[in-house]
Amino acid sequence: MESKVRLNLYKHKKTINLNKLIPQVILHLILICGSITMLVPFIWMISTSLKDIGQVFIIPPVWIPHPIRWSNYIKAWTALPFANAYINSIKIAAIVVTATLLTSSMAAYAFAKIKFPGRDTIFIIFLATMMVPGQVTMIPTFILMKYIGWIDTHLPLIVPPSLFNAFGVFLLRQFMLSLPKELDEAAIIDGANHWFIYWEISLPLITPALSALGIFSFMGTWNNFMGPLIYLNTPEKFTVPLLLNFFKGMYITDWTLMMAASAIAIIPVLIVYLIGQKYIIEGVALTGIKA
C-alpha cells in the first residue's frame, strides 16, 4: 500500500514537472527562432562584405564567399575619410554621453528628492514631450540653429541631446525613488546639503541606471543619421552613419564596400553593448520599483 502511494506521488510530481517544462521549452524555441531571425541580416552583412560584387544577388544565395575578399575592408576604409568620421562620431558620442549623465541625473534628483511647487505637474509636462515626434520640431530647430550660426558644426548634435533627455530623467528619477529615504535624512542631520547628497550618496547608488542610460545614449548618438544629414555640409565634419550613405550611387551601389563599411561602423556599438549588457538589464530591471 505504501509503495503504491509513493508511486502515485512520484507520477504526480513527474506530471507537474512535465507541465512546467513544456511551456518553458516552447518559450525557448520561440526565443531561439526569434534570435536566428534577428541574426540573419547581420550574417548576410558579414557575408556580403567578403564577396565579389557579382556574388551579392546570386540565387540561391551564397552564404560562404568564395573567394573571400578581405581587401573589401581596406577599400571601404580608404575610399572615403572613414578615420576622420570615426573621430567625429567618437567625440560627439563621448561628449553627449557625459553631459547627458550629468544633466539627467541632476534633473532626476530634483524631481525625486526636492519638494517644490508644481513639481509633479512639471514632471508630467516634461514627460509629455516624449510623445512629440521629432519631425514636428525638426524645422523649428533647424531655423533656430541657423540664426545662432551653428549650421555645419557639431554643436547641434551635442548641445540639444546633452541638455534635454526626458527618457534619461525618467529612468534615473524612478531609480532614485527606490533609494531609502533614511540615507537622505541621516545626511541632512549630519549637516549635508542637497549637492553633497546628490554627489556622494545618490550617484554611487544609481550606478546601474547610469550605466544603462550611458549605453543607450551612446548607441543612439552613434547611430544618429538624420541630425548630421540636416546640420552638416562639410565632408570633414561628417559622422560614420552619414559617410556610409556615400557608398550609394545614383545608378549603382557597391554593396560589398557598403557592407564592409557597415561592419566597421558597428564595431564600437557592439563592443559597448557586449561590455555593458548586464548593466542594461540590471538598470532597467531595478527601475520603477517605487512609483
From TrEMBL:
Record's protein name: Carbohydrate ABC transporter membrane protein 2, CUT1 family (TC 3.A.1.1.-)
Entries under PROSITE patterns matching the protein: ABC_TM1
Bilayer topology term: Multi-pass membrane protein
Keyword tags: Cell membrane, Membrane, Transmembrane, Transmembrane helix, Transport
Keyword Signal: no
Keyword Ion transport: no
Pfam families membership: BPD_transp_1
Organism: Thermoanaerobacter uzonensis DSM 18761
One GO CC term, this protein: plasma membrane
Gene3D superfamilies with a match to the protein in the record: MetI-like
UniProt cross-references to InterPro entries, sorted A to Z: MetI-like (IPR000515), MetI-like_sf (IPR035906)
